[in-house]
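Thread title: Can someone regenerate the structure for this chain?

I was given the following input by a collaborator and told the matching structure tokens would be attached. They weren't. Posting the sequence so someone can regenerate them.
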Amino acid sequence: MNELNIYHVARYIVEQLGSMTTMKLQKLTYYCQTWSLAWDDVPLFQEDFQAWANGPVCYELYQKHSGLFVVDDQFLSNFHYDQFNKSQLETIDTVLRAYGEETPIELSNRTHAERPWLEARNGVEEGARSKNIIDKATMQEYYASKIAAIK
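Best answer:
Regenerated them for you:
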């Protein structure tokens, strides 16, 4: 079995929710990662998120959609998600139910109020570029403390 990566998760999200902005896709993949860390104590994928001005961004995923504003059902169509186990699918589906109706700006604003992004942005001027990595241990600790809020 191939190792899952963010592209598998992004593909699944687009198939479940349909066309969306790249900003929304970035935030939904971020929340899939955070809740996997909180609920299952393991990352859903190995790629990191950087603390960009508009919230968490996975650079590898950004490279795939660079130049696009919206992704549709053709985006990452060569990636399949039949490798997800039951727990992984439950995590992703729960995140999509909890956050899927939010706008990209609402999701961005939500991340801006949460400790993992705030800590990674520490010392970076508002609106400035940053490649600072959002620490997975911080993500796990923070979101594990919030479990009751989403389930």
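The beta strands are 20-21, 50-52, 55-57, 70-71.
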